Automatic annotation (TrEMBL):
<dbReference type="InterPro" id="IPR004498">
    <property type="entry name" value="Ribosomal_PrmA_MeTrfase"/>
</dbReference>
<keyword id="KW-0687">Ribonucleoprotein</keyword>
<dbReference type="GO" id="GO:0005840">
    <property type="term" value="C:ribosome"/>
</dbReference>
<keyword id="KW-0489">Methyltransferase</keyword>
<dbReference type="Pfam" id="PF06325">
    <property type="entry name" value="PrmA"/>
</dbReference>
<feature type="binding site">
    <location>
        <position position="157"/>
    </location>
    <ligand>
        <name>S-adenosyl-L-methionine</name>
    </ligand>
</feature>
<dbReference type="GO" id="GO:0008168">
    <property type="term" value="F:methyltransferase activity"/>
</dbReference>
<keyword id="KW-0689">Ribosomal protein</keyword>
<feature type="binding site">
    <location>
        <position position="221"/>
    </location>
    <ligand>
        <name>S-adenosyl-L-methionine</name>
    </ligand>
</feature>
<feature type="binding site">
    <location>
        <position position="134"/>
    </location>
    <ligand>
        <name>S-adenosyl-L-methionine</name>
    </ligand>
</feature>
<feature type="binding site">
    <location>
        <position position="179"/>
    </location>
    <ligand>
        <name>S-adenosyl-L-methionine</name>
    </ligand>
</feature>
<keyword id="KW-0963">Cytoplasm</keyword>
<dbReference type="GO" id="GO:0032259">
    <property type="term" value="P:methylation"/>
</dbReference>
<dbReference type="InterPro" id="IPR029063">
    <property type="entry name" value="SAM-dependent_MTases_sf"/>
</dbReference>
<dbReference type="InterPro" id="IPR050078">
    <property type="entry name" value="Ribosomal_L11_MeTrfase_PrmA"/>
</dbReference>
<protein>
    <recommendedName>
        <fullName>Ribosomal protein L11 methyltransferase</fullName>
        <ecNumber>2.1.1.-</ecNumber>
    </recommendedName>
</protein>
<keyword id="KW-0949">S-adenosyl-L-methionine</keyword>
Amino acid sequence: MSQPRFYFVVVDVDPLLAEDAGVLFFELGATGVEERDQTTLVKGLVDKTTLVASFSSQQEAETARDELDPAWLPRIEELVGDAWRDAWKEHFRPFELCPGVVVHPPWEKYAGQAEHLLELEPGRAFGTGLHETTSLVATALQTHRATYAGGQVLDVGCGSGILALVALVLGAGNARAVDNDADVIGVAQENAERNGLQARLDVDTTPVGDIAPEFDMVVANIEADVLVTLAAPISARVKPGKLLVLSGVLGTQHDRVRAAYADFESVASPARGEWVALILRRPHANG
Ligand SMILES: C[S@@+](CC[C@H](N)C(=O)[O-])C[C@H]1O[C@@H](n2cnc3c(N)ncnc32)[C@H](O)[C@@H]1O
């Protein structure tokens, strides 16, 4: 039987242009765009962001390539067979996500000592924990675990469910996780089951504004534009006096996101690489 063929257009762009280039790819008919840089599982070049856009046919890929800025060095790559889909697995090895929490994939157990072990299979969902935006939130969950001990944590944009699971092993009583991508819900549920945490995690596609409010900690690792758009419903889910952690924010986007949550007090803005997280506290009603 003949093997399936996959067509990609690959470009190397200035990191500041990566977002616009991604949008352009979708306008040109891409069915998906993978970004590679120094922070991603599959590394890109040092000073550039490599975008790998998939197309349904060779002709669509060639048409798109011809529309692109030649300075981006657009080129076609063709892959035969679908073993490449799992190539990222080679890069996912056991690692310490934050002090005391080691994450490992199902295909490689961890031989060392760890206070908490989480087995994680992200599948097609975002959330191995290797990305800075995830580890910034995990570290905040670790640092501020006393503020939600025994209470309820909400994870908005849960992907693999990794942050809700970290909150649970660090002492949350229960967690709620939501994502607007229906495909990741089963992944997050399976990850909860792998770790025996399913009884304490509810995960579904409920829009954040429809969730009953009053969480002891809310975390959201989504992109800056979404965090700004969802500022009102996300803010309303945090109990007065409790913490909100926002991630997925580039250093250059910090002030814009901060302004959207102007009612909150700043606790800290830890950074890793080009990424920054905002740790904010909802003031008590009387000030
Ligand atoms: C960067 S991933 C984060 C995954 C995981 N929480 C982590 O920290 O590794 C962002 C996730 O947010 C989801 N997302 C994007 N917009 C959303 C929205 N408006 N409501 C809920 N989830 C959203 C995406 O589907 C994706 O799974």
